[in-house]
Amino acid sequence: MTIEEVKNKRIGLISLGCDKNRVDLEKIIFNLKSFGFQIVGNPEDAEIIIVNTCAFLESARLEAIENILDMSEYKSSANLEKLVVTGCLNELNYQDLTSSLPEVDAFVNIKDNDKIVSIILGLYNINLSIPNVIGRSLTTPQHYAYLKISEGCNNFCTYCLIPYIRGRYKSEDIEELVNEATRLSNIGIKELILVAQDVTKYGVDIYGKKSLVELIRRLSAVQGIEWIRLLYCYPEEIDDDLISEIRDNPKVLKYLDIPLQHVSSRVLKAMNRRSNYESICTLFDKLKNEIPDIIIRSTFIVGFPGETEEDVDLISKFLKTYQLQNVGFFKYSREEGTNAYKLSDQIDEKIKESRYNRLYSEQYEIINNFNQKLIGRVYDVIVDESNSDYSVTRFYGQAPEIDTVIFVDGQLPLGEILKVKIIDTLDYDLKGEIYDELT
To answer: Contact at 8 Å (CB) between 206 and 174?
Structure first.
């Protein structure tokens, strides 16, 4: 088979997992398109399928394997010739992965993503080194994009496999990030969403000091970038310099995603987290004092080994005290290979479910009360989705895909930033209308 014949192959893609995984896939897609491959949306039309996997939890690994097996069915029923697996599943070094999934023609490690075109050519017995092309083909709407500022993690929380999957913390060069932001701005991106396992540690490994504030200032200078959003800030790393930057920089949204995971000092210690109840409360008091309109998102793990009802009561008390607007709860997943896996005081699944349901029910009341207070307020919103009879928008307190949205009647221009007045609540979501300052 010639290189031109391979180049004419149609490629289908399945992406699983987090926004950091999404960025990896967008770079892969850019290289595939740059070489000349055609990307198709229907796997039945694909001659090559790439499954980009997540392996953070057992449920994610099972989902990845199910998708791999589902896609492999197209080898007998459709056009599929080659099945390629990328992403985190390959990084767990399962000895039997190749033998247990013979349907897969190539497992590509994350460090080899930039060789994806050469690897595919090799499957057709064409040994040719194709250089990596820097760029991304966005899978988000054309007005916002994720900017992955580092890889890996050094925190080694006892419940988490990420350091073993993605390796040690490694920051991206600040000049390369600014260049990437410039390229994104040039194609219409207005909102940059900074992501990493821990964005607050940015720069420590390559510059010898935390450099997130410097990065934010450099990104703020990129023409066309209007909103900068910070996800995944570890509480113990949020310092006065960062708080001041969020408060004073008009491009930085008054929004923080702080994955607390718990607030009980005893449970946090068992998780190998460096915060405690007192330090978390001190931080949240400071944030709300310095930035009164700040909106904070967080996540909590319920049912961690040794957790008591009193520990859950403390989460409940914390949520009611600080009135967090956006909260996710996860039942502890016992992951082999983590230190928490070996703990003896594992929690029964029924108890986990009960605690999970309790906290979600309580948070539902908090978000309803918060939403009621928003009625009558006017916000700048960005238009994420535009339909013939309604549009989906977000204000600064809503991150895409994970938070609530504001529905507005009528077809609004996609990606535009407009003023909207909140007029009603729709369960978790909100109803708004275009605000006319003259009325």
So the answer is: no
Angle CA 428–430–436, to nearest 5: 170
Count CA within 13 A, CB hemisphere, residue 92: 22
Of 291, 293, 296, which Cα lies nearest the Cα of 258? 296
Q: According to the model, what pLDDT value does residue 436 have? A: 82
DSSP sequence for 92-161: G--TTHHHH-TT-SEE--GGGGGGHHHHHHHHTT----PPP------SS-TTEEEEE-EE--S---TT--
The amino acid present at 348, given as its one-letter code, is D
Contact at 8 Å (CB) between 249 and 289? no
Amino acid at 24: D
Residue with tokens 């204000």: 395
d(CA 292, CA 181): 29
Query: Which residues on adjacent β-strands are paired with residue 299?
Result: 328
pLDDT of 368 higher than 80: yes
Query: What average pLDDT does range 398-422 have in this prediction?
Result: 96
CA neighbor of 345 nearest in space, from 356, 332, 354, 329: 332
Give the per-residue pLDDT at 95. 67
The two tokens of residue 106 are 């190539």
Average pLDDT of the residues in 416-422: 96
